[in-house]
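$ run holo --ligand "magnesium ion" --emit tokens
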Amino acid sequence: MQLTSTELGLAARVHQLTKTYGTGEGEVRALDAVSVGIRRGEFTAIMGPSGSGKSTLMHIMAGLDAPTSGSVWIGDTDITGLSDGELTLLRRRRVGFVFQAFNLVPTLDAAANILLPFDLDGRRPTALERARIDSLIDTLGLRDRLGHRPHQLSGGQQQRVAIVRALATAPDLVFADEPTGNLDSRSGREVLGLLADASRTHGQSIAMVTHDALAASHADRVLFLGDGRIVADKPRQTAEEIAAYMLAAELGTVGARA
Ligand code: ADP
Ligand code: MG
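-- output --
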């Protein structure tokens, strides 16, 4: 008998996940039989060279893209068996994401973008949610930008709006692809603090792709991808340790694959 994700303490997991793009000569294997779980209440960083499959893994785990083969669970639900409608509802209620390709609605101002998950769900934020949103807006310095539409905001401001939106409903699971990529170092630190706090204080499960060793040093766990496979899975480390590992991996002095 297989244990459920809940019994395993996992908020999401994939088993023997493979994703290929194209066919024949042009086939690219973006993910190659990846099996990994995102632990409940943990802040997990995902690192790896460009093209190693990080974004593909995040998109598939968040139910935004379908695998070529393998299984994907969000909580105890195998999402590969869901209809589009069921998947949309599950995502809306349980998952927050900050992805470059799924960003803000250009015709809505920042406030309306932040409230979008509630509108789509046909409800208003509760008093508690309102207080959380207000606090996120203040922490990320967006108070005087709420009436602006995305094109009136800098890249960093747009990214912060997307982060408030992703955290507004306090979803069980948050996926973020380079959430600090466009931010100055102070805003970056605020965002990392919010993500760490979401897991530590609120028990949310966070998976964050980053290139930045300093950003990854805020995480409880660091997964390294290489050529579509998980090549290392490490507990919390310092930025220096992470940077040293990445450098060694680039030089090919580690990475004899398990
Ligand atoms: P990362 O986020 O680590 O940079 P990606 O997951 O974006 O890597 O990409 C992994 C591999 O899959 C790369 O070789 C990339 O070129 C390829 N790839 C990603 N998306 C597509 C796509 N839509 N069509 C074809 N190839 C893709
Ligand atoms: Mg990517």
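-- notes --
The first strand starts at residue 10 and ends at 21.
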